[in-house]
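Q: Predict the bound structure with 6-deoxy-beta-L-fructofuranose.
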Amino acid sequence: PGPLSFAAVDLGASSGRVMVGTVGPGTLELREAHRFPNRPVRAAGTLYWDVLGLYRGVLDGLRAAGRTVPEGRLTSVGVDSWAVDHGLLDASGALLGNPVHYRDGRTEGAAERAAAVMPPEELYAATGLQHQPFNTLHQLTAARGTSALAAARHLLLIPDLMAYWLTGEMGTELTNASTTQLVDPRTGDWARGVADAFGVDLSLFPPLRRPGDRAGELLGEVLEETGLAGPVPVTAVGSHDTASAVAGVPADGGGGDGAFAYIATGTWSLAGVELDAPVLTEESRRANFTNELGVDGTVRYLRNIMGLWLLQECLRAWEADGLRPELGTLLREAAKAPALRSVVDAGDPGFLAPGRMPERVADACRRTGQPVPRDPAETVRCVLDSLALAHRRAVADAQRLSGREVEVVHVVGGGVHNELLCQLTADACGLPVVAGPAEAAAFGNVLVQARAAGAVHGDLAGLRSLLRATQPLRHHEPMGDRDAWRRAEAAICA
Ligand code: ADP
Ligand code: LRH
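A: Predicted complex:
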């Protein structure tokens, strides 16, 4: 049989896309069928995702995907998206209100509220999850007493909600479930003690499924809407976008590259290493490293860094001011701006909420006694230097805390298009960076489907070798003054 075609639905915080992957032995191609913006909406004081708008984008994307494959025939569909967020559904399966955005302010004070229920050391030992105010556990605590939660009989994480609308079947995919702070990373099962202590009803979650499991079949109404030729199975993938992105890292498992670190750079930078078992030490908790679950029983041991969100929000502010910023031009100017003139802590939760980003970056420089960026180019340079510095710290901490030495850093995600960021990351880490693919999450999504369908075989290393053999990658060698990064790090840590 010839190569098979798969649709990867990949919903990022800044855009959603439906990609078509063509896979066979020695063949791996990915084409964009449809991309649509993901624009949150604030209404009556709450920040929401436009979840039906996103689902419309998925349907439009599947229709576009069908037009690109012979006889409109897809072998299967897989869905991944950002983590932690969810819809609540009543007993009939109707959505009870719009899913709230993880950047909404309702979880402010989550750390204190949680500590009153369970000491943070105990919570970390049980779940291995870094503290983020938006972890599903804290969102459910914040939603306590609302009529939606009272009426809810099902809770579906965003990709599981999309899969439910596509198939009529409910499930909870494990890699994304691991971001709820309600899963024990040692067993890959629910952390029942945590759920009991926090009063979370685990029966809201439909049964767990794993990447590669069958997740249903496109409903008749979906086939009609999209023009696809049925039957089309939906396959569970690493439905957490970062799990799919890490599966889509073109690392050399054969030892050529040695151990690798990865940085998935999109709206967030997720920087860390892949492990066989979680690290649940107190030192790891204090360093705010997380143990999320990956494809094939792996552990994604990583830290969340604010990522290109800082840049996205600067661009949005400048646009609102009528400046009409053009990203390519700004990046070219930023490359010429003075290096490491000022840096901010790109791990600071103070940058989580939307709004006024250039001013907030300037305020952070002022507070730390550093020069304030004088124009957009200098602000962009400050943001990129700060991200590279945070990448350096995360890669170093991941090695120290896991005991694994790293020889190469793989950068995947939209940030691959930003050559300056990739070079600064190589310089800051003092390690070679391999950049690409930008659409690693879609590749990871497609490869897991393709393996489930028998189009490819093997373990993660085998899937990655197919990526390495077929995709263009860019190499960045570390350059410049190493000591400058050490000094910048010392300034931030002080
Ligand atoms: P997410 O999945 O979180 O929505 P992506 O992985 O799509 O994020 O990455 C989006 C980011 O990638 C943008 O915010 C932008 O900074 C960067 N990016 C995308 N295209 C380009 C480009 N052509 N040049 C530079 N940066 C780019
Ligand atoms: C990246 C991501 C990240 C989560 C955040 C909520 O898209 O899934 O891994 O921490 O969104």
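A: The mean pLDDT is 96.
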